[in-house]
Amino acid sequence: MLLLVLAGCSSRQSTLAPESHQARDIASLWWWMMGVAWIGFGVVAGILLLAWVRRDRRGIGRDREGAKPGEKISTAVVLGLGVAMPILLIAALFFVSDVFVIRTTQAPAASATKLTVRVIGRQWYWEVRYPGTRAVTANEIHIPARTPVLLQATTADVIHSFWVPRLNRKIDTIPGKVNEILLYADEPGDYRGQCAEYCGLQHTHMSMVVDAQPPAQFRAWLASEAAPARSPAGGLAARGERVFLAGPCSSCHTIRGTAASGFVGPDLTHLASRRTLGALTVPNRPADLAAWIVDSQHAKPGNQMPDVQLGASQLRALVAYLDSLK
Ligand code: CUA
Questions:
Q1: How far is the CA of 265 from the centre of ligand 1 (A)?
Q2: Distance 200 CA to ligand 1 centre (A)
């Protein structure tokens, strides 16, 4: 059991491996709470032990007439440790978390940030937009490292919760509302996150990754992501584009630069530049992509994508096309 619990401490998606000022504040609050809880537990366990050691061996119920001198002390202990101390501790905790943590993790004013990223929760993936550009992607949120980024979170359907534990606290996505939080990463790297509000059958497969890049690399990525897809000149990929546009794919997905403009599933304009499919459910490799197209319900039951019936050569062409969308 303990090993299972400790597995949660791995640094990939752990609040206890902070990589920003905000996440460090949250982690230190957690350690303080943990410490105080252990002290409280120690005191209670100590008193219980003392009571057991000094128990009345003559049995309960005998010799109970009239108050004994010790009973006044026990009333004071019950009121002091059982009523006053919790009130004091919880009030102190409330004060410390409000003043030192909630406020420092709050979204900054738009003027204090260099970039805004808009994330839209959907059953079950994250749509990612960069206001002011045409870039639309999914589940892989690129940001420049060491740069304050304003993240605006909303939803297209039910309530989700955006949470990247190593960078900041969680923030709910609520229909008709835009919630904001600061995203800041001390160092370039991948920071995994997860939907933190139960949102239906595939809640567990609604992950995302924040890819903090050196600023120049990020600007290059954003420019390429904002550009429309390039149509393949010929060959298998060109045939695959025709399959995509003629088949059911184009009624649910958008590929900017083509006639496909569906909005049920993720924007696929630069699908080949993404590392995973289905919100980090399977890797984005040609074989996995082919399996996903014909039977995504196997990997992610209940998702909105129907299994697509295609002949082997059509499927090969379609995968070649999607794989060309760098
Ligand atoms: Cu979205 Cu849980």
A1: 16
A2: 7
Ligand 1 atom with the smallest distance to the CA of 121 is: 1
Which residue has the CA at smallest separation from atom 1 of ligand 1? 160
- Tokens 């690399």 belong to residue: 217
Burial profile 53-74: b = 16 or more Cβ within 10 angstroms, e = fewer: eeeeeeeeeeeeeeeeeeeeee
Residue by residue, pLDDT tens for the chain (326 residues) are 888 777 766 778 888 899 998 999 999 999 988 998 899 899 889 989 998 998 876 655 555 555 566 677 788 888 888 899 889 988 988 888 888 888 878 777 767 788 999 999 999 999 999 999 999 999 999 999 999 999 999 999 999 999 999 999 999 999 999 999 999 999 999 999 999 999 999 999 999 999 999 999 999 999 999 999 988 888 999 999 999 999 889 999 999 999 998 999 999 999 999 999 999 999 999 999 999 999 999 999 999 998 888 889 999 999 999 999 99
d(C-alpha 17, C-alpha 96), whole Å = 21
Pocket of ligand 1 (CB under 6 A): 121, 124, 160, 195, 197-199, 203, 206
CB 47 within 8 A of CB 78: no
Residues 175, 199: contact at Cβ < 8 Å? no
- DSSP state, 254? B
Tell how far the Cα of 306 is from the centroid of ligand 1, in angstroms: 20
